[in-house]
Amino acid sequence: MTTFIPSRTVTETSAAIMELLLEHRRTADATPSPVAAFTPQLSQLAHFVERGEQIVLTMPAFPCKSPNPAKVLGKLPDQGEYLSLLFLNDLCHRIQKLHAPGARLIICSDGHIFSDFIRVPDDHVDAYADELRALINKAGLTQISVFDLREVLGKISNDDKRALVHDKYAPSVDDLRAQMRTDEETLRLYRGITRFLVEDTADFEGTRSALQRECRRRAYGVIQRSRAWGDLIADHFPATFRLSIHPQHVGSPKYGIRLLESPDAWMTPWHSTALLREDGTWQLLPRAKAEEAGRLIVRDGRASHFEAVPSAS
Q1: Which of 26, 75, 159, 291 qualifies as a cystine partner to 258, CB 3.0-4.6 A?
Q2: pTM (2 decimals)?
């Protein structure tokens, strides 16, 4: 049985949680916005606060490692993912200081939903997600769980699952093109995904312009499937606080969150490598750049991250 909390307390608590989340916002906006501007998020928080319930956050993320060896150390999660998981678990604990029932995060690992478009084999996606779960369990990160395509639609192939989800939820390419003509956020997403696909395609035998054309075509597919995955998540986990690893504008139903410091608003641990800087802080960089700045650290027989080499005094 839940206890009703007066609306003033609901408003104040929701605003305090939103203030905390603003410290880690991933945004495409040029200027910061006040808490009151985040109407969808305040409403999502109030749903839980008013009922005295644990806040449930969902985040489509942690799909698989980029296939580009100039960006990442391998196919499995490494220090970048580990640090991100620590941050997210700690964020849930910090929310609990503001709202006693606390918070939990469901990572909706989206690698399978578009693996055919990003050209990463399903067994690599499986291995990545399984290792992610192992990291969470080993570190005792009790506020985080992982959900992926293997948990829905029964015992059919991943190809069949992708087709079913696409047919049920995905917007048409024509709809996406129309959105890009009027919505800067959708256009920015399309350009960002196209850039990732170009960077991650290592074995293309045609011209650069032909590669860009092909990646633009595949980018539509990635966005279609990402939207479809988001709708499937909404069906499975209704009334959650919706996080995104992509920059989001004020007013979006999703809230963009930054996992670790990086020079690029689009960079994530699965498209980069972690560098431990001389001052003890961490930064995400493409492997090639991290390699220039530091030495490789190996843990448990596997490449983990880079550590900055102290500069000569």
Answers
A1: 26
A2: 0.91
